[in-house]
Amino acid sequence: MLENVWLEISKGRQTYIIGGTHRHPGQNLEKFTNVLENTRIQIRKLNKPCLIAGDFNIDLLKYNIH
């Protein structure tokens, strides 16, 4: 399961996209990666600065198997 929230914030003439996401522990990492990548592609088409933060629950010490 993936939960995420996206906001578009304007300051003056500049607009920013800010996203917060959470991947539940033990959930399918490939599905999570695909959803996040597709979202990133859509945001890139908007040509606006973007910041993504969250709890991805990925064990970077086990990158070769996780």
Can you give keywords for this protein?
66 residues, 3 strands, 3-stranded mixed beta sheet, 27% helix, alpha+beta
- Biggest beta sheet attributes: 3 strands, mixed
Helix/strand structural class: alpha+beta
Tell me, briefly, the overall form: elongated
| Helical percentage | 25-40%
Q: Strands of the biggest beta sheet: in what spatial order?
A: 1-2-3
| C-alpha Rg (nearest Å) | 14 Å
Count of DSSP H/I helices? 1
**How many DSSP E strands?**
3
Cα(first) to Cα(last) distance is 16 Å
Series of H and E elements: EEHE
Mean pLDDT: 91
Number of domains: 1
Question: What does this protein structure show overall?
Answer:
It is a single chain. This protein is of the alpha+beta class. The chain has one domain (2-62). The chain has one helix at residues 29-46; strands at residues 2-11, 14-23, 50-55. It has a 3-stranded mixed β-sheet with strand order 1-2-3, with helices on one face. Helix 1 (29-46) links the parallel strand 2 (14-23) and strand 3. The model has no long low-confidence stretch (mean pLDDT 91).
Task: Give a short summary of the structure.
With 66 residues, the chain is an alpha+beta fold.
Give the topology.
Blueprint: E1 2-11, E2 14-23, H1 29-46, E3 50-55
